[in-house]
Specification:
heterodimer, A: 299 residues, 12 helices, B: 285 residues, alpha/beta, 9 strands
Chain lengths: 299, 285
């Protein structure tokens, strides 16, 4: 582990709340609204961290531990995750499987906390979340398998060490597949609408309905981290040369993440959520794109 | 013929001898060694008793000289001490008189073990040396260590956040109320999500395989009295595979039921017949 590599998790921790801000600014600009300020999430976190708590009598420690387990899983994921050409703090052969399972454990924490409330709304959100995970996880693993095969390396750092320009068609397919995954994993339009306020149509938002105070701060912060984590998988596919200076590489990676956030904002501005029953088809589509990418790397 | 390769584990004297012997028969000999092999004739960590003076026995030297022509000259050049056996060396066994000093008629060498290894290593032909394999071994054992480390970080992080939460909430009010359920304030166990409802989207998606069944009594009239819905996912493996299999096996074995008469003298008769059959078989073979 080198000292420069720990910069990435630190930067993610501090800068991730900017990404939802960017998305919201783009959406507001596209809709001609004033919109919330760029730093809105920082204000929200500051406010929530100083609030008292109200808990449901139905809930147990599972409900209280859920948000922080989710948060810590994403934090550990950041330790094994490279951003663009910035190598990860820790890297070993097969760490991409660990990443998939860390995301799975994070999801499990959120789902378990949601079910702990006993509310049927939250149960419904949890049920949908795991249903969609059933489709996103294979798509993610197949996409990672394609990248591992193309680069001949089984660690995330090795996979994203250079930008394999020779694999352009496969990269385009994997990139589009990962972008759908990025939107689905982060509960963005067209899979879920983060701005909706009708419980029956929500997925992520409905799972965290009963959380408040510090826990909710961890949840919001965790969502921003998840944007960063899943975004980093996509950013590695974007063209960028390793400069040799970790800070410069990190800055380039972050710029790509901001571009990704702007792209997400544009997608959210121009299209509506697809019908709930159509979401699996969209996610299977992402899996098909990943599979085609894998086939192309064997070509 | 395709290229052949032999792998020798350990680059000590024995490994080097094996590599020298194998090198005549295969295209490539790969020598794996845990230590990084030193350039100079110096001791390395993996060799016990590597620091004191050694001499070779005559047969051993002959065997090595056969495998590696030019060994004696190479040892001379490297600075090994050539001595006349019997004349320039003296053997004393405990409790016995020393061997008499008499020319045995052949030369031998005295040197440190690292020197001998160094010279032999220089003579062994066409060998790919993968020294410092310790590093590779470490890398292999590194993954579980790193995984454990990351898991510890996960647990420590969760505990640290629990502590932060406790500190932040210490000075605030923490109250309890009901779960928010669209204003419905009397939650009952029957209202919450069950396992069946949790996996309903999936069972619905896999209807073709799982064949989930549901019965429903719709509300009738303005003031419906009884309304119900029952849904179940019967065990597919049992319904499609195990139940028919066991039914079939049971029916097949039913054919032998007449054997079980229920009268003791019949069972004694079976035993007698079986014993006679065994006796006949024993006599015949």
């Amino acid at each position: 582990m080198n000292a420069a590599a720990i910069l990435h998790p630190l930067a993610a921790l501090l800068l991730a709340p900017l990404l939802p801000g960017v998305i919201n600014r783009v959406k507001a600009r596209m809709a001609g609204r004033e919109g919330p300020p760029l730093l809105q999430l920082y204000y929200d976190l500051w406010k929530l961290l100083r609030k008292g708590a109200v808990y449901s009598r139905t809930t147990t420690w599972v409900f209280r531990a859920g948000p922080r387990l989710n948060f810590v899983c994403l934090l550990v994921a950041l330790l094994i995750l490279p951003l663009g050409r910035v190598p990860a703090a820790v890297s070993f052969a097969g760490d991409l499987v660990l990443l998939a399972y860390l995301l799975g454990l994070a999801r499990f924490a959120t789902v378990a906390a949601a079910l702990d409330t006993g509310s049927s709304f939250e149960g419904m959100g949890a049920s949908r979340e795991v249903q969609f995970a059933l489709f996103t996880e294979p798509a993610l693993l197949i996409g990672m398998a394609a990248l591992a095969h193309a680069s001949g390396d089984l660690s995330l750092t090795g996979i994203y060490a250079d930008w394999p320009a020779a694999l352009m068609p496969a990269m385009a397919l994997l990139g589009s597949g990962f972008f759908i995954l990025f939107l689905a994993e982060n509960c963005r339009i067209p899979v879920d609408d983060p701005a909706t306020h009708l419980e029956l149509t929500m997925i992520h938002e409905v799972m965290v309905l009963d959380h408040g105070n510090v826990d909710y701060a961890f949840i919001l912060w965790g969502s921003a981290l998840k944007l960063w984590v899943v975004g980093a998988l996509l950013v590695g596919l974007f063209p960028a040369a390793a400069t040799g200076c970790p800070l410069l590489d990190l800055a380039v990676g972050f710029l790509w993440l901001v571009v990704l956030a702007i792209l997400t904002g544009l997608v959210e501005s121009v299209m509506a959520r697809v019908r709930l029953l159509r979401v699996p088809q969209l996610l299977v589509g992402a899996g098909v794109l990943s599979t085609l990418g894998l086939l192309l790397t064997f070509w | 013929m395709s290229a052949t390769r032999a792998v020798v584990v350990g680059a000590g004297i024995g490994g080097l001898a094996a590599a020298a012997a194998l090198a005549r028969h295969v295209d490539d000999v790969v020598l794996l060694e845990r230590d990084r092999l030193p350039e100079a004739p110096v001791a390395r960590p993996g060799v016990p008793q590597g620091r004191h003076v050694h001499g070779l026995l005559g047969g051993g030297f002959d065997a090595f000289a056969q495998l590696l022509p030019g060994l004696a000259e190479a040892l001379d050049d490297a600075g090994a001490v050539r001595f006349r056996v019997g004349l320039e060396s003296r053997l004393e066994l405990p409790g016995q008189a020393p061997f008499p000093l008499r020319d045995a008629g052949w030369d031998n060498f005295s040197m440190s073990r690292p020197l001998f290894e160094h010279v032999v290593r220089g003579l062994v032909p066409v060998v790919t040396q993968l020294a410092g394999t310790d590093a590779a071994l470490l890398a292999a054992t590194r993954v579980p260590a790193v995984l454990s480390g990351l898991f510890l970080v996960l647990i420590a992080g969760a505990l640290a956040m629990a502590w932060v939460r406790r500190r932040l909430l210490a000075a605030r009010s923490v109250r309890e109320t009901v779960t928010w359920d669209c204003g419905y304030a009397a939650p009952a166990p029957s209202m919450q999500y069950t396992g069946a409802s949790f996996v309903q989207p999936l069972t619905h998606g896999a209807q073709a395989i799982l064949q989930a069944q549901s019965r429903q009594q719709d509300p009738v009239g303005i003031f419906p009295a009884a309304v119900s819905r029952t849904a179940e996912v019967p065990d597919v493996a049992r319904r499609v595979f195990f139940d028919p299999l066991f039914r079939w096996v049971g029916a097949g074995l039913g054919w032998f039921r007449w054997v079980q008469e229920g009268r003791v003298h019949f069972y004694v008769l079976y035993i007698v017949v079986a014993l006679l059959a065994l006796l006949g078989w024993a006599l015949w073979s």
